[in-house]
Amino acid sequence: MERCLELASKGLGSVAPNPMVGCVIVHGDRIIGEGYHRVYGEAHAEVNAIASVKDPGLLSGSTLYVNLEPCSHQGKTPACSRLILDRKIPRVVIGKADPNPVVAGKGLRMLKEGGTEVRTGVMEKECLELNKRFFTWHREKRPWVLLKWARTRDGFIDRLRPTENPDGVSWITGPPARQWVHKWRSEEQAILVGTRTALLDDPQLTVRHWQGRNPLRLVIDRKGTLPGHLKLFDGIAETLVFTSEPGKVYENAGCIQIPGSTDYLPAILGYLYEHEIQSLLVEGGAALLNSFIRSGLWDEARVFTGNAYFGQGIPSPVLPSVPVHRITTGDDLLEIYSKMPRSHATKRGEFKS
To answer: Is 46 a catalytic residue?
Structure first.
């Protein structure tokens, strides 16, 4: 199962909205086949693993390991449970059941009714952690939300900069930390900033310093004041603007109107849920980050502390928990925070597209 998870993780950033799945086939004490789900719309892990077995005659005496319940329905690819039965694989070990109601237990039932010996719940916690985006989207009815920011050693996230005449970006972290951020962008489906960050930092929000696909760029512009020369409107990556300004049109960007009386965060998360966006990276600034924290609409936070001092400025957000991991990268400290999932789904807001 550890090998399944290792294989599955190779699909991060390329299989969403599908889950990351790895599969290993064992005959006796020897691995005879393995595979993983590589790209959304292409063959599932079980299909790739079975196809990799050089001697198909061994399958009838083998055990198939997979970190998520095999699918039982015909979608973009055939049902994996049916393939396992057709190849007469007698034993299947599963890490975790699939929360997708289209699957949810049906794959297990199909295998058992077909005479397959099935074991579940192996390394279940690790299987859940790997596909936290997929599970959050199904259970909470919203994307998995990752908050990210950098703060100085004296606790500031930014200098005091006027929006009409900003001095440019005040870097807090070094190049290694900034490269990590580009890697994270390649792993999540969407990225969000607020109006102030768009104006002051003029970010591109792409993966220039890492290999991978650009996330869907999202920006909040309640009053429709963002100028068209910003890098967010350069057409390099798909961009959406959430605004309350009627009839607003943006060049190289789509426009999603949210009524002014509507709570923006649930509305944005509701829109992303409806469009199968399972993960969202929020890159600040302080006001937007604090809104997510106060609302409890976050799942993980990654906070850099850089080797810089501002003396005064905009205070860093404060999380209601302690870090679960600390990592040093260059001269910077990365702290990772985790929030336990809520027991009920987020109420979605009103939006129009």
So the answer is: yes
- Using alpha carbons only, give the angle 292, 226, 200 rounded to the nearest 5 degrees: 70
pLDDT digits (tens, 9 = 90+) for 50-109: 999 999 999 999 999 999 999 986 666 678 999 999 999 999 999 999 998 888 889 999
The H-assigned helical ranges of the chain are 2-8, 45-52, 80-86, 106-113, 124-130, 132-140, 175-187, 195-201, 264-274, 286-295
The structure tokens listed for 203 are 């970010």
Report residue 59 as tokens.
Answer: 């399958």
Averaged pLDDT for residues 153-171: 81
User: How far is CA 143 from its chain centroid?
Assistant: 8
**Catalytic choice (34, 46, 69, 283):** 46
**Phi/psi zone of residue 220: left (φ > 0), alpha (ψ -120 to 50 degrees), beta?**
beta
pLDDT of residue 90: 98
Measured in whole angstroms, the distance separating CA 111 from the mean position of its chain's CA atoms is 30
Model pLDDT for residues 3-23, shown as the tens digit of each residue: 999 999 999 999 999 999 999
Contact 89, 64 (CB under 8 A): yes
Number of Cβ atoms within 10 Å of the Cβ of 257: 19
Contact status, residue 188 vs residue 218, Cβ threshold 8 Å: no
- Residue 332 identity: D
